[in-house]
Design a protein that fits this description.
The complex is a heterodimer of chains A (about 525) and B (about 475).
Chain A (H helix, E strand, L loop, with lengths): L1 H29 L2 E9 L2 E15 L2 E10 L4 E9 L2 E9 L2 E9 L9 H9 L3 E9 L4 E9 L4 E2 L10 E2 L4 E8 L3 E7 L4 E6 L5 E7 L5 E7 L2 E7 L9 E7 L5 E6 L8 E8 L6 E8 L10 H4 L4 E9 L7 E7 L13 E2 L4 E10 L5 E12 L1 H9 L5 H7 L4 E13 L5 E7 L7 E2 L11 E7 L4 E7 L3 E6 L4 E7 L1 E2 L2 E7 L4 E8 L4 E8 L1
Antiparallel strand pairs in A: 1-2, 2-3, 3-4, 5-6, 6-7, 7-8, 9-10, 11-12, 12-13, 13-14, 15-16, 16-17, 17-18, 19-20, 20-21, 21-22, 23-24, 24-25, 25-26, 26-27, 26-28, 29-30, 30-31, 31-32, 33-34, 34-35, 35-36
Helix pairs in contact in A: 4-5
Chain B lengths: L4 H19 L9 H4 L1 H10 L9 H23 L3 E2 L2 H17 L9 E5 L6 E5 L2 E5 H6 L3 H16 L2 H13 L2 H12 L4 H37 L7 H7 L13 H6 L40 H8 L14 H17 L3 H13 L5 H19 L3 H5 L9 H12 L2 H12 L9 H14 L6 H14 L6 H9 L1
Parallel strand pairs in B: 2-4
Antiparallel strand pairs in B: 1-2, 3-4
Helix pairs in contact in B: 3-4, 4-8, 5-7, 7-10, 9-10, 11-13, 14-15, 15-16, 16-19, 16-20, 20-21, 21-22
Classes of the chains: A mainly beta (about 525), B mainly alpha (about 475).
Chain lengths: ~525, ~475
C-alpha cells in the first residue's frame, strides 16, 4: 500500500511538472483576444487589421498589438502600445493614414473581482470615443479622446471573481474617410448623437450634435459630403427613412430629405452607396404599400403585396431637382410580366429583395429569394372529407390553407428610365413547402452580396445558399461558379474581399487547417 | 568522302541528340525517398533508440521526446519524398564525402549517411547520428566542388562535435530544470504582463541558445577547414560571402522585359497585366521597421561577413578550383524546379526558369515546364486556388521583374490564360519531348482544359498516365489526382 502511495505521489509530481508548461501557455493564451477588421477607403477594401489585446499591463491598462495586412493578407507591419480597455469599432484609411475608432472605458468590457467593485465603477464611469491615427511607417501620429456618457447596470449573472457591467453606446461608432479631407466619425451616447470631423493628421476639425433621435444611423461619405441616413422611430417597421447631409468644406447643412415617393408612400432602403460611374451617392430599395407596411415577415404577407415597386434616388447635386428620383411600380399593372402584387408571372415567385446595386450602365438591380406560394389543396380536401370528426380538420388547417417555398433567386432590373424587367434567376437550392404563416427567416437564410470589377465593368452576385455558394455574373447573365460548402472534408466559405475578388476560406476538418485565398472573379 | 565526313558527323550527332532527347529522364519515380529509402526508414525507427543517460525521469522523458522528434522528422521527410536519390548528383556529393572521410578517418570513422533534400533553399544540414542532408538548392547554386565541400565539411563537423545531440540534451535539461519551472511559476504568479514575462523566459533561452549555436557554427567552420586541408581540398573564405547572397535570388533582375519571354512563344501579351491595378495597401508606400532581416536573437549562424573575416587568413593560396560539372548543376536545377512546380510555387518556379533562359540555356525541357506552369495556373484558377498557386510575395522581397511576373499571374484574364494553355499544346518543342512528358501533356490537358472537370475524370487520366509511365518522375504528380 505504501509503495502504491509513493508511486501515486511520484506520478502526480511528474504530471504536475509536465502540466506546468501547458498550464502557463493555456492561462496566458486565454488572456489574449483579437478582433479582425477590414481596412476600408472610399468604400473599397484595401487591407486588413488585427487588433490584439495581449495582456493586462497594470491595474487599468493593457498591452495591445495592431498587425496590418495588405489586401493580399501579407503582413506589412505591426505596432505595439499600451492603453486602457479598448474596443475597436471602426477602421478607415485616408492619405496613407489609418484611423482607428475605439470605445475606451474603465467599465465597458472590463472584468471586476467583486460585485461591489462594479457598483463603485459604474457610479462615475470614464468612457471615451478614442481615435488613433497611424502612419504606414508604424508611428502613432495622433490620438483623440471625446468623453461620452453610458448608463450602466450591474450584470446580475456574474461568475466567481468575474463581474461585469451592462451598458453600451446608444449608437456604435462609425468611421468613414473623406477623400482629401480626413475622416468623419459618428456615435451616439446618452446625451447626444455626434458627428465629428478629423483632419488626415488626426486633428479635430469640427463636430456637430445631431438632434434627431432616430432608431438607427448609417454614415456615408461621398466627395466632400457626409451623409447620415436615419431610420426614424415610427410605426413602420421597414420604412421611415430620412437623410441628413453636410458639406465638409464649408460645414453647410443640406435640407433634410425624407424618403417618400410622390404619393407619400414610405420607402424601404436596401442600399445607400456611391454610383460606380459618377461616384455620387444613390439610395435604392422598395416602395412600401401603406396598407401592408408591417406585413413582410411571413410568406403569406409577402405575397399579399407588401411592396408596390422599387426605387432609385440618385443624389446628383444639392440644388433644386438635384435628387433624381426613379420610381417603378408593379402595383399599377404597368410592369410586363409582373402582377400588381409583385408576382413574376412566368416564374410564379415573389421577390424578397435583400440586395440592390447600380451597374455601369445606370441600371439598378434588385436581388432576392423567389418565394412561391401554393394552396394546400390536399389539406383542404382532407379536411372536407374528415369534417365530421372535428379534430382532424382543425389539425390539417391549423396552419392555414396556403404553403410557401423558396425557389431560385430573382434578379429584377430597373432601367435608368424606370423600365422593370425580370433579368434572370440564379439557380438555388429549393426548400420544402412550409405553411405560409411561418416566418420567412425560418426557411430563407440565403446571404447575398455583390462584387464589382471596375476594370472590366462587370458586376457579380455572390449567393450563399444551403449547399452551395453561387457566383453569378450579372453582366453576362450566367452562373460563373458553383462552389459546394462541403466537399469531402473541406468546408468552404466565400467572403467579400478587395475589388473584383472574393476571399475563399477552406477548412479541412480532417487535417485541421484553414486555407485562405483571394480569388479574382 | 573527306568533304562529306563533317556533314555525316553532324548528321550523326543530330540523330544522337534527338535520341538523347527522346530517352533522357532526370530520375525515376523509384528514386524518390519514400521508395528508395523505404528500408532505411523502417530500420531508422528500430535502430535509433534513445539512450538512457539521465537518472532524473523528467529530463530523460524530455530528452526522449526530442530524440523521437528527430527520428520522426527524418522518417516523415522520407515518407513525404523530401529526398531524392538521383545517381549522378548523389554520386558527385558522395565522392566529396568519401574524400573527406578517407582523409579524416580518426574523426570520421564511419561514412555518413547522405540525403539529397529537394528543397530549393541554399542550405545543407546535419541531424546528428552521422546523417547529413544537402539541398538541391545548394548544388544548383554552388559554382565549384570546393564550395560544396566547404558546406559539407561544415555539416560533418557539426556531427563530429555532436552539436545536435548536445543541443537536445541541453534543451531537455533546461526544460526540466528547477530554474525553468520557477520562471514559469513566476509567470503564473504575476498579476500583470504575463505574456511579456513568458516571452522573456523563452527569448532568454532562445537568445542564449542562439549564441551557443553561433559559437557552434564558428567551431564547425574551424573544424571544416581542418577537414578540408587534410583532404587536400582548397579552402576559400570568400565562399562565405557568396553564400550570403544566396537568399536574394528573387531580387535579381531579368535580362529582358517580362513581355519578351512570352512573345517569344508567339503568345499575346498586354503590358497592363504587369501593372498592379489594386488600390490596396500593397501598392502604398508603407515602411515599417525592416522585417526582411531576422532579429539578432533568432539568428543561428554568425553573419557571413564575420565568418569571412575570421577565416580569411586560412584561405589556400594560389588554389585551383574545380567547377561543378554542368550536367550536375543542370540536373540539380531541373530537379529543384520540378519540385517547386510539384509544390505549386508557380511564380518562383517560372522566375527560376527565366533566370536559366537569361544564362542562355536553350534546353526545351524548360519550355515544357513553362507549359506546365500555365496549365497549372489555369487549373488552379478553375479550382479557385490561383492566388495560392502564385504565392504572392510582398514587393520589398523581390525584384521589379518578379513583381511584374507575379502581377501578371494575378491579373491575366482567365480567357487569355486558357489561350496560353492551348497555344502551348501546339508548340514545336513537343516533338523532342520524351513519351512520359508527352503523356504528362495529356494529363495536364485533362486537368486544365477538359470540359469534364470531375474528380473521376482526373483520376482516370492520372491512372492512365501511371499505367503507361510507371517509372517516370512525373508519376508523383499523377499520384495526387489518382488518390482523389
Amino acid at each position: 500500500m505504501k509503495k502504491l502511495l509513493v508511486a501515486l505521489l511520484l506520478f502526480l509530481t511528474v504530471t504536475q511538472y509536465a502540466q506546468a508548461q501547458t498550464k502557463v501557455f493555456k492561462e496566458v493564451g486565454e488572456e489574449i483576444s483579437s478582433q479582425v477588421k477590414a481596412i476600408v477607403q472610399d468604400n473599397a477594401l484595401v487591407g486588413y487589421l488585427v487588433f490584439t489585446q495581449l495582456e493586462k499591463a497594470s491595474e487599468d491598462s493593457f498591452n495591445y498589438k495592431i498587425t496590418i495586412m495588405d489586401e493580399n493578407l501579407n503582413d506589412i507591419g505591426a505596432i505595439n502600445f499600451r492603453e486602457q480597455k479598448l474596443i475597436l469599432q471602426g477602421v478607415s484609411l485616408e492619405q496613407d493614414v489609418l484611423c482607428l475608432a475605439y470605445l475606451k472605458s474603465n467599465v465597458y468590457g472590463n472584468e471586476f473581482q467583486t460585485k461591489k467593485k462594479v457598483r463603485a465603477a459604474i457610479i462615475d464611469p470614464k468612457d471615451f470615443v478614442f481615435t488613433q491615427f497611424l502612419s504606414l511607417n508604424g508611428k502613432i501620429l495622433n490620438t483623440n479622446s471625446i468623453k461620452v456618457e453610458i448608463k450602466y447596470t450591474v450584470d446580475p449573472f456574474g461568475r466567481k471573481n468575474i463581474w461585469t457591467a451592462d451598458g453600451k453606446l446608444q449608437h456604435n461608432i462609425q468611421i468613414k474617410n473623406i477623400p482629401g479631407r480626413g475622416f468623419a466619425c459618428f456615435y451616439g451616447d446618452e446625451r447626444k448623437n455626434n458627428l465629428v470631423i478629423f483632419n488626415p493628421d488626426g486633428r479635430l476639425g469640427w463636430q456637430r450634435p445631431i438632434k434627431e433621435d432616430a432608431k438607427a444611423f448609417g454614415l456615408m461619405s461621398s466627395g466632400q459630403d457626409v451623409y447620415l441616413l436615419m431610420k426614424q422611430k415610427d410605426k413602420m417597421l421597414e420604412g421611415g427613412y430620412e437623410l441628413l447631409g453636410f458639406n465638409i468644406k464649408d460645414t453647410a447643412v443640406y435640407p433634410k430629405y425624407v424618403l417618400k415617393d410622390k404619393q407619400g408612400n414610405s420607402l424601404k432602403v436596401i442600399t445607400f452607396a456611391n454610383d460606380p460611374v459618377t461616384g455620387k451617392p444613390y439610395i435604392s430599395g422598395t416602395i412600401l404599400n401603406p396598407r401592408k407596411t408591417n406585413d413582410y415577415e411571413t410568406g403569406k404577407q409577402l405575397t399579399k403585396g407588401t411592396y408596390l415597386g422599387v426605387f432609385t434616388v440618385s443624389l446628383e447635386s444639392h440644388k433644386k431637382g438635384g435628387f433624381i428620383e426613379n420610381y417603378s411600380y408593379w402595383a399599377d399593372g404597368a410592369a410586363a410580366g409582373i402582377s400588381k402584387k409583385g408576382l413574376f408571372m412566368e416564374d410564379g415567385t415573389y421577390g424578397r429583395y435583400d440586395l440592390s446595386f447600380k451597374d455601369y450602365q445606370g441600371n439598378t438591380y434588385f436581388i432576392g429569394s423567389g418565394v412561391h406560394k401554393q394552396v394546400k389543396w390536399g389539406a383542404i380536401i382532407s379536411s372536407v372529407l374528415t369534417a365530421p370528426f372535428i379534430i382532424p380538420p382543425m389539425i390539417l388547417l391549423g396552419l392555414g390553407t396556403q404553403k410557401c417555398k423558396v425557389k431560385d433567386a430573382v434578379l429584377l432590373k430597373q432601367g435608368p428610365k424606370g423600365a422593370l424587367a425580370l433579368e434572370g434567376t440564379i439557380p438555388a437550392d429549393k426548400t420544402h413547402f412550409v405553411p405560409a404563416k411561418v416566418l420567412l427567416d425560418a426557411y430563407d437564410n440565403r446571404v447575398y452580396y455583390n462584387v464589382t470589377n471596375a476594370d472590366t465593368k462587370s458586376d457579380y452576385v455572390v449567393m450563399g445558399d444551403i449547399k452551395n455558394f453561387v457566383i453569378y455574373n450579372v453582366t453576362q447573365k450566367k452562373v460563373q461558379r458553383t462552389i459546394p460548402h462541403k466537399d469531402g472534408n473541406i468546408f468552404t466559405t466565400i467572403f467579400p474581399a478587395k475589388e473584383g475578388h472574393v476571399m475563399v476560406s477552406e477548412y479541412n476538418k480532417k487535417e485541421r487547417y484553414t486555407r485562405v485565398s483571394i480569388e479574382a472573379l | 568522302m573527306n568533304a562529306l565526313r563533317p556533314l555525316l558527323t553532324a548528321c550523326l550527332l543530330l540523330t544522337l541528340s534527338g535520341l538523347y532527347a527522346q530517352t533522357r529522364a532526370l530520375y525515376n519515380y523509384q528514386e524518390l525517398s519514400h521508395l528508395y529509402y523505404e528500408k532505411q526508414r523502417d530500420s531508422l525507427k528500430k535502430v535509433w533508440v534513445c539512450p538512457t543517460i539521465y537518472k532524473d525521469k523528467a529530463t530523460q522523458k524530455k530528452y526522449k521526446e526530442f530524440w523521437d522528434d528527430r527520428t520522426g522528422f527524418i522518417t516523415e521527410a522520407i515518407a513525404h519524398d523530401n529526398y531524392i536519390h538521383e545517381k549522378e548528383v548523389a554520386g558527385y556529393i558522395e565522392d566529396i564525402i568519401n574524400q573527406l572521410t578517407q582523409a579524416n578517418k580518426s574523426l570520421l570513422p564511419v561514412r555518413p549517411f547522405l540525403l539529397i533534400d529537394r528543397s530549393p533553399s541554399v542550405n545543407a544540414y546535419s541531424t546528428g547520428q552521422n546523417v547529413i542532408a544537402v539541398n538541391l538548392g545548394l548544388i544548383s547554386f554552388a559554382q565549384t566542388r570546393e564550395e560544396l565541400a566547404l558546406v559539407i565539411a561544415h555539416e560533418l563537423s557539426h556531427n563530429i562535435l555532436e552539436h545536435t545531440d548536445n543541443a537536445m540534451k541541453q534543451k531537455a535539461e533546461w526544460l526540466s530544470s528547477d530554474e525553468y519551472k520557477q520562471s514559469l511559476n513566476a509567470v503564473l504568479d504575476s498579476k500583470y504582463e504575463r505574456l511579456s514575462r513568458l516571452k522573456k523566459v523563452l527569448e532568454g533561452y532562445s537568445f542564449s541558445r542562439g549564441r551557443h549555436q553561433r559559437y557552434h557554427e564558428s567551431e564547425a567552420d574551424s573544424l571544416a577547414i581542418v577537414l578540408l586541408k587534410k583532404s587536400n581540398i582548397p579552402f576559400n573564405a570568400a565562399y562565405f560571402l557568396r553564400l550570403d547572397s544566396s537568399d536574394i535570388q528573387y531580387r535579381q533582375p531579368l535580362k529582358n522585359p517580362v513581355k519578351n519571354y512570352f512573345t517569344a512563344y508567339q503568345l499575346p501579351f498586354e503590358d497592363a497585366w504587369t501593372k498592379q491595378r489594386s488600390k490596396g495597401l500593397s501598392t502604398r508606400a508603407y515602411n515599417f521597421k525592416d522585417t526582411t532581416s531576422i532579429a539578432d536573437s533568432l539568428k543561428t549562424h554568425p553573419d557571413c561577413v564575420d565568418r569571412y573575416a575570421r577565416t580569411r587568413n586560412r584561405t589556400t593560396p594560389n588554389a585551383k578550383y574545380t567547377p561543378i560539372p554542368a550536367s550536375i548543376r543542370d540536373k540539380a536545377t531541373k530537379m529543384l524546379i520540378w519540385n517547386m512546380y510539384y509544390n505549386m510555387s508557380l511564380t518562383p518556379c517560372l522566375y527560376r526558369i527565366l533566370l536559366e533562359k537569361d544564362k542562355g540555356n536553350t534546353d526545351e525541357w524548360y519550355d515544357f515546364m513553362v507549359n506546365n506552369i500555365f496549365a497549372a495556373l489555369y487549373y488552379s484558377d478553375r479550382e479557385l486556388h490561383r492566388f495560392n498557386a502564385i504565392g504572392v510575395t510582398p514587393k520589398e522581397y523581390i525584384s521589379q521583374n518578379y513583381f511584374e511576373l507575379q502581377t501578371m499571374f494575378l491579373q491575366i484574364p482567365r480567357e487569355n490564360l486558357e489561350q496560353y494553355c492551348k497555344t502551348f499544346q501546339n508548340e514545336a518543342f513537343w516533338k523532342d519531348m520524351t513519351p512520359a512528358e508527352k503523356a504528362l501533356k495529356n494529363l495536364m490537358y485533362t486537368l486544365a482544359l477538359d470540359p469534364d472537370n470531375s474528380d473521376k475524370n482526373k483520376a482516370r487520366a492520372a491512372k492512365e498516365f501511371k499505367a503507361n509511365n510507371s517509372a517516370s518522375m512525373y508519376c508523383e504528380f499523377a499520384d495526387d489526382f489518382e488518390k482523389k
